[in-house]
Amino acid sequence: MSDEKNRAVAEAILPLVGGAANIRSVAHCMTRLRLGLVDRSLVDREALAALPAVLGTVDDDTYQIVLGPAAVAGVTAQLQRLLDSAAAPAAAASTAEDPTAEDLAGRGARIRAEAKVRNATPVKRALRRIADIFVPLIPALIGCGIVAALSGALANLGWAPALVAALGAVSSGFMSLLAVFVGYNTAKEFGGTPVLGGAVASVIVYAGVAKVEAFGHHLTPGQGGVVGALLAALLAVQVERWTRRMVPAALDVLVTPTVTVLVGGLAALYGLMFVAGEVSTGIGHAATWLLAHGGLLAGLVLGGLFLPLVMLGLHQALIPIHTTLIQQQGSTVLLPILAMAGAGQVGCAAAVYLRLRHNAPLRATIRSALPAGLLGVGEPLVYGVTLPLGRPFITACVGGAAGGAFVGVAGQLGSAVGSTAIGPSGWALFPLLAGPHGLFASAAVYGGGLLTGYVVGFLATYFFGFTREMLAEHDTPAPAPTAELAYDGG
After folding, report:
1. How many helices and strands in the chain, by DSSP H and E?
2. Three-state DSSP state, 95
3. Domain spans of the chain, in order of start
4. Catalytic annotation, residues
5. Does residue 105 carry a pLDDT above 80?
6. pLDDT for the residue numbered 103
7. With the C-alpha atoms ordered 281, 287, 292, 293, is the resulting torsion angle positive or negative?
8. What pTM was computed for the model?
């Protein structure tokens, strides 16, 4: 969308979420505008859902408005500009005679406490924090993964050996220091000094650790990988907090960093690297065994249940597993299977489009959201089409299970497909594929899985996705398109 359209959407959203004074923070992911609200009772959910650009809302730790990949960044930027514009005169006009901000903050604290009890569990909070550590690394993983795939393709063709070496250096540099970035983000997320977390984690990838002997064996640079970096940085945060409490303020600048790096680094060398190395090796062996011996069942379960896991927030536990597999084996064999969940949604949406011939708003949503779905961004289809209808969401998961089973069986037969990065899905995953038989064989297996997911999702939805009552409710001609499920492609 143009800046004018993005601003119009932002201006429409702002009063419906309680105005500028009700917004504490603004952020976005690939498809959602994420708002930290003071008082969620001020949100006009019905009016918000009726906006043409809004595909749905999710009430989680932040209030999330699903806008789609093409619109979310622009709308977020325009909303931030509106908030900045409102903040200046509001600050200038603020006086002791206007206590409404404090009242609002008090109500917001009460609402947030209730929301935490209702929506958050210790497990979900922990998984969300782990995801916040790894998600900022995804752009670099994608970029380096595509460069690595290009390098591999040139190497297989025997072309430009000097360029292959250069591309290998470009793609491997970040991966060789991935533990440092994980340590930095871990300390930042858990309230420590980020650079101290990175410093402690850097011990894991330092070449000199090969001279260190622990548990009767010499350590290997990189042993423990991102798991070791995560644990080392978490320990460093605790050591830093304890030291700051115990050390006089005059000595803090010298003593706290020294003790943090010393204790965290030695703990990494003489315990965490070994333990995390065993865990990382176990993850790799488990993934390999799973596909080799239970590919069909694994594909069915992972492909069919991934989207429900996403909606519960439990998919975040897979992020460090993906990262560990990429660092350890060069690719994650789980992601191509999980990507089949999106294929089921695409096939389902096509069936909905044909079944509900008279539902113009919903068909407009599908036309706008389907291209994003093909590229692996499934939220517009999930929140704009299948989930509101209910039963089609289940048949879409059946399509995802079938596609996952196809990829899983291929892995069981020796043609496992992996992804060299996390983040992309759908057709966007093709450049990142890797496997034992080369890119073309991997693309054939992955493409076969997508096709299976499309077809089974379509057939399951077309024949079993609607009852007569549902068709009577949703397939009635409308005098004019309503805005409830419409999506303008932004």
Report:
1. 21, 8
2. coil
3. 3-120, 132-306, 330-474
4. 29
5. no
6. 47
7. positive
8. 0.71
Question: How far apart are the C-alpha atoms of 112 and 435, rounded to whole Å?
Answer: 47
- Residue owning tokens 């932040």: 62
What CATH superfamily is the domain 3-120?
A: Glucose permease domain IIB (3.30.1360.60)
Find the angle CA(32)-CA(117)-CA(41) to the nearest 5 degrees: 60
DSSP bridge pairs for 64: 34, 58
Examine the pLDDT at 479 and tell me if it is beyond 60. no
Distances (CA, A) of 274 to 214, 220, 221: 8, 10, 11
Helices (H), 158-224: 161-176, 178-189, 194-205
- The predicted-structure confidence for 243-278, as pLDDT tens digits, reads as follows 988 988 888 889 999 999 999 999 999 989 988 888
Q: Give 271-325 as a 3 state SS string.
A: HHHHHHHHHHHHHHHHHHHHHHHHHHHHHHHHHHHHHHHHHHCHHHHHHHHHHHH
Report the first-to-last Cα separation within the chain, whole angstroms.
5
Helix then strand then coil, % of the chain, to nearest 5: 75, 5, 20
Residues 98 and 412 sit within 8 Å (Cβ to Cβ)? no
Read off the amino acid at residue 171: S
| Residue 426 backbone class (left: φ over 0; alpha: ψ -120 to 50; beta: rest) | left
Phi/psi for 100 (5° steps) reads -65, -30
- Burial label for 441, CB within 10 Å (0-12, 13-18, 19+), is middle
pLDDT at 348 over 70: yes
Length of the chain: 490
Residue matched to tokens 């291929």:
410
**Two tokens, residue 192:** 């420590």
| Neighbouring C-beta atoms of residue 440, cutoff 10 Å | 11
Spell out the residues 6+ positions from residue 361 whose beta carbon is closer than 8 angstroms to its own: 478, 481, 482, 483, 484, 485, 486
CA-atom Rg of the chain in angstroms: 25
Q: Give residues with Cβ within 8 angstroms of 107, minimum separation 6.
A: 38, 39, 41
Q: At what angle do helices 273-312 and 391-412 cross, to 10 degrees?
A: 150
Q: Does the CA dihedral 183-28-454-309 come out positive or negative?
A: positive
Say if residue 97's pLDDT is above 60. Answer: no
Q: Is 50 helix (H, G, I), strand (E, B) or coil?
A: coil
> For the residues of 425-478, what is the DSSP string, one character each?
-GGGGGGGEE-TT-HHHHHHHHHHHHHHHHHHHHHHHHHHS--HHHHHHHS---
> CB-based contacts of 167: which residues, under 8 Å, 6+ apart?
147, 148, 150, 151, 154
DSSP per-residue codes, 384-403: IIIHHHSHHHHHHHHHHHHH
Cα–Cα distance measured from residue 196 to residue 21, given in angstroms and rounded to the nearest whole number: 36
- How open is the CA angle 267-271-273, to the nearest 5 degrees? 95
